[in-house]
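Lab notebook, bench 4. We co-purified these components, and the gel suggests they stay together. Before we commit to crystallization screens, I want a quick structural picture of the whole thing.
Request: model the full complex, all chains together.
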Amino acid sequence: MQMKTMSKLKFVFLFLMFFITVNEFSPQSTDPDEILEGVKEAFTKIEDYEVDIRVIIDVDFLKVPDSEAKLYFKQPNKIHVESEKFALLPRQGLDFSPLGLLSGKYTALYEQEDTIRNIPTSVVKIIPLGNDGDIILSTFWVDQSRNLIIRVESTKKPTGTFTIDFTYEKYDDYYELPSKMEFTFTVDRMMFPRGMDGQADDEDSNYKSDSKTGKVYITYTNYEVNQGLPDELFETENHESK
Amino acid sequence: MMTGLIKIELYKIFKKWRTYIGFIAIGLLVAIIQTAMVFEGQKSLDFMTRNLQDSFLFVGNLLNGFFISYLILNMLAVHIPFLITLVAGDLLAGESTAGTYRILLTRPVSRMQVLTSKFIAGNIYTFSLILWLAIVSLGIGAILFGFGELIVIKSSTVIIFDRNDVLWRFLLAYGFAALGMSVVCSLAFFFSSLVENAIGPIVATMAVIIVFVIVSAINIEIFSSIKPYLFTNYILSWRLIFSDPINTSKLLNAVLILLGHIVLLYGVTAFIFKRKDILS
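Here is the predicted assembly.
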């Protein structure tokens, strides 16, 4: 009888241990708002930063030399860019601020678990509310263990769909910040700038496709985080440094 | 001997006030465009690149001396030939109008030497006009806007050239433009050998250019087949220099075609001039 009671207690103990262990090692929430709040909160420990960026543009119709610039960011969404030469930078995700990516009112829906570059992620869809913004629909792949956005896919009017992939590294053994960003977007033929001479160039007549996919690779180096950047810096326009 | 003759011809060219119309017109045109660009340039550039700016943030200044010089060079085919014909059309016909043909040819120099010296002097004027265009375009551009990266928007590509990769392209482009204008000079020179009044060669040359330019611009199959034979089709081939990579075989082909036109027109003019019955 005593043996039986002992066996039952042992079973209950093992069950409880298993339950606690499973919950401890799988803290994956399926609440989309909780997931996104976690990401936003993790980013709030970064008040400002400055970083050197190198931009490589790989777009079929766009031939631009690789450019280097210095990016300054301050919460909640101030950015300033300085470059010795002309630089072309993607508008979306440059400062990788979740507050910027998740601005405005929206409805969030948890979709599924997914693995991106061997990182387990939770997929959350964002449907913006109201007609003010340009974003029609966004999907976020969030690494909940680190509260980091690994990938964003958005459909924006009128520019179409773009995807941003982030690769993170730890800086000062504390801040996890992107070391690389890959921006993929589609370019519609109709959106192409009008030629300054107004004439077709025979040399370019091999261009047949109506839409193209382009990529922009950004490498982030030499982070300086929470140095107390002055607000005045962000009042000036983005410019070339002399 | 030839140097002396060329100097005399240049003296005759630069003694006439009409020679300076070209320099004044180019100086004014460039100054007006550059001034307009100070006020409206950014708006025009934003308009041209607004689709790109929807997706990209522009850091730095694309409205610079290189960009404006490129725009001005694009106007070359339309405006500058007229300024060249004003002088080139007068080179031979002017002697006839002034009644100095016979006096000129009684000097102890051959007809070919007289013709060649006039042809070279006409081309020196043409080259100096393009050189003036380069100086005022780049010079005023540098003063008003400075230099920077050059954006070139073609029908299906946008190229942004590094500022260190632009000046040599401009030097080549102005050189090519001078070659193209030299064909115009040769054509006016040819017409000048046929008549005894300078108005005829000026009007005839401009008529040929206008007809050729219009035929080149209309996309009809029958015109497309004759397009490669029109020299005006190659005058703007300097645009190939602002490509990446440069289509060198196409560029060389354009250079050879333009040189061929110059040689042919000079040859025909020489043939006519040697047999010409000089009556005035």
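The radius of gyration of chain A is 23 Å. Worth comparing against the SEC data before the next meeting. The helical segments of chain A are 2-25, 32-43, 98-101.
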